[in-house]
Amino acid sequence: MSEKFDGCIRQNTFIKAPIEKVYDTIVSADDWNTFFTTGMELDPRPDGDIVFRWQDWGPDFYSLAAPGKVVTANRPNKFAFQWGSPESGGPSVITFNLEAAHGGTVIRLTEEGYRDTKEGRAMILECASGWGEALTLLKFYMEHGIVYTPPEKNA
Question: CA-CA distance, 38 to 56, in Å (whole number)?
């Protein structure tokens, strides 16, 4: 078995909303499906199932399902889950640490645990940009009510 990749994904953002509201949004499949996923499933309790799902997502219309398990659910400060398989360079652990600050909430997201393999390095690069997009979309959704608008497939 290969060694773990020496490094992790780090993404931080500020959301002008109470910490409890941000946490409740992060643990809601319905909310994720409004701004970032399609058909997500989420049981937000420790050892609960989580499936990030995208169907015909983005301009390339890709489809993907990424299952995992909830590791930590400590409202309102921390939510973590594990996903990925050894074949994809994982498993990795994604942690949302939330703190009330500056009149809103600071989210500090980390993802760590990828293996130092060709597949692991490819996945950490893909997920780094994906988590940046997710936190930006979460901010726009929570602060301005902006939802994801999919492109028209046959237009």
Answer: 9
